[in-house]
Amino acid sequence: MKHVSHLFTCLLITFFFCQCKSETSLDAKTKDKILIRGNSVEPSGLDPQVVTGVIESNIIRAMFEGLCVEDPVDATIHRPGAAASWTANEDFTEWIFKLQPEGKWSDGKSLTTEDFVFAYRRILNPSFGAKYASMLHYIEGAEDYNKSHNEIYLIKNNPDFKDRWEELKGINFRGDEEVELGQYEGTDFSDLSRAEKENYLKGFGLNQLGKEALLALQDDPNLFEWSADIDNATKNSILSIYVANQGEDMWDLANVGVTAIDDYTLKINLRSPIPFLPDLSKHYTWYPVPKHVILEHGTLAQRRTKWTEPENLVSNGAFKMKTWLFNYKIELDRNPHYWDRDTVKLNGVVFLPISNLYTEARMFYNDQLHITYSLAPELIEYSQEKFPENARQETYLGTNFLRFNNNQDELKDPNLRKAFAYATDSESLIKYVLKGGQQVATGIVPPMGKYTATDGLKFDPVLAKEYLSKTKFANNPADLKITLLTTDKEGAKTLAEALQSMWLEHLGIDVKIEQREWASYLTRMSKLDYGIATGGWVGDYPDPTTFLDIWKKGDGNNRTGWSSKAYEDKLGEAALIKDPLERIKVLQQAEAIYMEEMPIIPLYWYTSNYLLHKSVKNWEPMILNNQPYKFIDLEN
Amino acid sequence: MLKTIIDRLLQGVVVIICLLTLTFFLIRMIPGDPLTDEKAMSPQVRAQNMKIFHLDKSKTVQYGYYWKNLFQGEMGMSSKKEQPVSKIIKQSFPVSVILGVCGMIIAVLIGIPAGIIAALKHNSLIDNGAMFFAMLGISIPSFVIGPLLAKFVATEVPYLKVAGWGDPFDWILPSITLGLGTAAYLARITRAGMLDILSQDFIRTAQAKGVSQTSIIVKHALKGGLVPAIAFIGPAFAMLITGSFVVETIFQVPGMGQHFVNATNDRDYFLLQGMVLLFGILIVMVNLAADILLTYLNPRLRS
Amino acid sequence: MEIEQGNSLWSDAWLRLKKNRMAFISLWVLVIIFILCFILPMTPLIKSARDTDLSNTFAAPSAEHLLGTDQIGRDLLSRVLTGGQISLLVGLIATVISIIIGVSYGAISGYKGGKTDTVLMRIVDVLYGLPSLILVILFSIVISTVAKDNEEYLQDLLRSKALVNLVVNILPLCLTIGILGWYTMARVVRSQVMSTKKLEYVEAAVSLGLTHKNILFKQILPNLLGPIIVYTTLTIPGFILTEATLSFLGVGVQPPNSSWGILLNEGANFMETQPRLLIIPSLVFGITLLCLNFLGDGLRDALDPKASKD
Questions:
Q1: How high is the pLDDT of residue B227?
Q2: Would you say the ipTM is above 0.85?
Q3: For residues A227 and A229, what is the distance between their CA atoms, to the nearest angstrom?
Q4: How far apart are CA C81 and CA C48, in angstroms?
């Protein structure tokens, strides 16, 4: 009983303690100008060059700043960020950025072009393994460097081989895409049989080989399929160059188009005209990182060093790290060295990783949050009625769709894909199931800026039947065995069930729902082990290519097995056009080709539904949900 | 006694080794790996990341590395969160202990008295009533009780919040939600244990001799009657700490329960191993403590 | 004067059970719930739980839908009843699995004793120590992947959609829950066997040189029947609850099947807006579990002569 009485004493003491303490309610926080934001889950780290998600982006955008910043109201305006001004040449391939003369890191050290060059070198470094490095492939030479196309540096530009390049370029440097590399995961090269070794070398190509494989190859150059007419001496000299340079950083040879003209002038050369570079520069992959801090805690290409520990993390944005408690909260403080500190209204931002949507809504209604991350579909209508001034519903740049496995024999027939597409009543789904005010998607690219969406697809059960009658399942739709793969996330099942009953009604096809937990779902989708699968894509920057590029052959996010040369040619054509309107027209033609093939069914364009406290000022709807923190204010 | 303890500890070490081995291979058997992500990565990036997370070697080699690192006190990095597992554990373990202890206190405070009273008033209205509530506690899942408490209690009672983890008041609702089920089990076990003891001959003899009812209960019945309840408390405590996932998500508690589920879902191999290691140790210790306690309470076991 | 007839253990127990009002009422309630869940949905009185009607969501109770409809216009009554089928089936099958494993394991351990017993019980300790939640998730992923990969084969073998559904979608879950839930049974049986073994008549049987098989099956197992029955009624609700928790985690039964756990979880999400969707399934779920528990306790009192002496 002693322990029990101790507990009671403790409780009593805390009771009085809390009574004396000033209230910790939202009003107090508002008075202190501390913004409290629900942020779904614990971020997967805070290194801008490692992370890939929206959750991380929400925090990183408060701490770091790119060359340009968003305008709080008009998304087409680019405000000066780390760069005070910028100019582009006529065809948008060469950009000059003048950095802020007062730009500083949160530890007081000046922010110079050196940090930018370091940052871009780091994210593109192949051994750093940044998952999102492709966001910088627009820079001249960046993709070759990032993908270790080392033959360019070692052979093509090598004075010894330069003249023989025509003869040598047939060598398998970059690896054969047809070889499934996954099978060699978790195996040592030396343990492989001869045939497996040959296949391994073929799949990886000279550029990707590790030391062990290269040395083995040096012993026996015939393990590798060289192009026919290369003599042994050449083989050996190529191999010894590769062995000597294995694991070396090729940056100095790569001529990547990032140049520090002086401490405050940065030149960026692009491989094709990119009028939307200022938009790209707002994405966290383009942010600078503090060279001095990163090198203090490790090397350039080293991942997971201690530089992102809360006590070490240094940033250049409006706020800096204060506390970071795992799965509990992240608190940011005003950055006293920020160049535009007078504009910043808030004294701090707190991020809470609230994974349960219902808990988050309860916390908001109980005055514990300023902004929720999201709003459960079940609560949207309720909140709109009861708390009309809090419930927000805004367009969000993203498309939800269903992938078809275009490798599955039945689904290779575009008529069947179209039958499914036209039998899908997205409007009812939105009205009765999703209830989030989403827009019916008529194409893969949501309307943005000057890009108007295609009106290709709409619900038409008659047309659906017509397409079905052109397939071999015209008379026996019930014989079609197709699975609908979906996740175990909230609402996924209801959506799947609604689709299932729609197709049963309009086509007579009874699909089987397979709900899988997230990792299994992704694995099955990547392996094309499904029939139809739910999916979605959120734009990284406001340009149609963010939605169109992923359907290229070999893109890891394609996951449909579909590809089209005509489509990719159109995209290639658009990439070279410098007139923005002309470019958009060609991109629309590409989308038309895509929709004609229908490798996916677009369902709806996203909206973001969330709750916003009335004390939050200057918070305007933005298509990427990237409201710039520096302009936000709190007022009771 | 000391020999028994050492014996049990050694057995505990074997238990933990088996546990770690089982989870090590089981988690690698299911589809997906730590690099499975909605945003796909190119084969090169993937290969590079496999290297960074030491997943490029064969499973047996990885297994060897795991033990080697563990002996050097290195639990590895969480692949999903890119944080040292030891740091994650260090931050969330105390929270889980608070939650578990408070939950257990609530369970004991409700369960044991209810069980004792029910046994003493066997087949009376009190017995039936107490058992009814006990069973109600078992019959409602915590993911229903939790939101109900948050919705109807937290909003009405001052100092209570619907969710969040700050001052000790925030401990109350999660602990109740967590402890209620255990309280119900405890009540039933206590009742059964007490009934068993009360029906035994030595109690009857004492009653016949005219020893007062209170003294019988306090001196004799409680000692034996609580044995099954105490035996249950050990594993139940471990269960409370590991099984707090539901309560943690509903009340936004930064404890470890969610790491279990998340680490499994994210295929976060090293975080999962770390959790299993920690809980293995915890469970072995708790069971050992319960055993020692039981030996003292029950002289028959002392031989 | 009547000669008192020697009642058998079972009729004695039945009489005692009858006297326990709560347990007896529970028994009848359970019978009714079973009939409602398993027989009523087969009749045309009840609509299909799979028929959605998007234009009639959240309908209030009416003559057409006695309990109203849910978020995609399905009849709530039929969802509750068919959900009950799944929940009760999961509870029953998982319990049977756990009993088969637990009884054989515990009996061997208790009967052999000595080193075998120590090793076997240490293994149970190991398993007890396993964080069951992780293992349930891991196992259910492994087992259901295997089951689903062999679905076509099963379809040929069983030739019945309902059976295949049972084997592919429900059995893996039962297996998982059962495989991870037999430890208590093993411990109970072991201690029962141990104490029975020490009884004079068994020791006599041993000294008479009866075979192990004979002793185990003829002398010891009959003594176990009581604890097994009690344990069964007490385990079923526990397993139903486990399934419900798994549904909360998203690894419960898969659609189109839905269980009480799924209904409860969905209902909890509609707590603010449509309390009906939480209250009705909760009531049915709660009553069923309460009755199972009361029946279990009643059976224990009835079958355990010691506790029934008072």
A1: 81
A2: yes
A3: 6
A4: 10
pLDDT at B113 over 80: yes
φ, ψ for residue B256, nearest 5 deg: -95, -20
Of B11, B26, B141, the CB nearest to C138: B26
Give one DSSP letter per residue of A496-539, joined into a string: HHHHHHHHHHHH---PEEEEE-HHHHHHHHHTT--SEEEEEEE-
| Mean pLDDT value across chain C | 80
Residue B243: list chain C partners with CB under 8 A: 132-133
CATH architecture of the domain with range C13-37+76-302: Orthogonal Bundle (1.10)
Is C142 close to B283, i.e. CB distance below 8 A? no
Chain C residue with Cα closest to B257: C133
Tell me the per-residue pLDDT of B3-39, one tens digit each, with 9 for 90 and over: 888 888 888 888 788 888 988 988 888 888 888 888 8
Burial of B47-56, coded b for 16+ CB within 10 Å and e otherwise, reads bbbbebbbbb
Could you tell me the end-to-end alpha-carbon distance of chain C, in angstroms, rounded to an integer? 26
Confidence of residue A373 (pLDDT cuts 50, 70, 90): very high
The C-alpha atoms of residue C88 and residue C30 are separated, in whole angstroms, by 11
Across the strands, what pairs with A607?
Answer: A395
User: For residue A518, which of B34, C166, B50 has the smallest C-alpha distance?
Assistant: B34
**Measured in whole angstroms, how far is the alpha carbon of residue C90 from the centre of its chain?**
6
CB contact under 8 A, C310 and B195: yes
Measured from the Cβ of residue A242, the count of other Cβ atoms closer than 10 Å reads 21
pLDDT 10s digits, A482-540: 999 998 776 787 899 889 989 999 999 999 888 777 888 888 888 898 999 999 999 98
**Looking at domain B85-301, which CATH architecture does it have?**
Orthogonal Bundle (1.10)
User: CA A312, CA C108: separation in Å to the nearest integer?
Assistant: 60
Work out the average pLDDT over A555-567: 91
- Which parts of B45-189 are beta strand (E)? 77-78, 83-84
Decide: A191 and B57 in contact? Cβ < 8 Å: no
Residue A205: which region, alpha, beta or left (left: phi > 0; alpha: psi -120 to 50)? left
Please state, in angstroms and rounded to a whole number, the distance separating the CA atoms of residues C76 and C263: 9
Q: How far apart are alpha carbons A76 and A580 in whole angstroms? A: 14
- Round to whole Å and give the CA distance between A209 and A403: 34
Phi, psi for residue A157 in degrees, rounded to 5? -95, 5
Q: With CB atoms and an 8 Å threshold, state whether B143 touches C272.
A: no
Instruction: Write out chain B residues lying below 8 Å of A129, CB-based.
Output: 45, 48-49, 51-52
Chain C residues near residue B272 by CB distance under 8 angstroms: 134
B156 in contact with chain A, both atoms CB, cutoff 8 A: no
Instruction: Indicate the domain borders of chain B.
Output: 85-301
Which residue, chain included where needed, has tokens 């099984």? Answer: B243
Residue of C138, C249, C290 lying closest to B135 (CB–CB): C290
CA of C221: how far to CAs of C108, C181, C228, C296, in Å?
Answer: 11, 21, 10, 20
d(CA A137, CA B228): 67
Task: Kindly state the average pLDDT of the residues C54-58.
Answer: 77
Q: Degrees (nearest 5) of the Cα angle A485, A488, A491? A: 95
Chain mean position to CA A380 = 27
| Cβ burial B228-243 (10 Å sphere, 16+ → b, else e) | bbbbbbbbbbbbbbbb
Asked if B252's CB is within 8 angstroms of A354's CB, the reply is yes
Identify which of A48, A52, A46 has the alpha carbon closest to the alpha carbon of residue A131.
Answer: A52
8 A C-beta contact, residue C17 and residue C279:
no
Amino acid at A386: K
- Which range, of A36-45, B16-25, C50-59, C179-188, averages the lowest pLDDT? C50-59
Single-letter residue type at A118: F
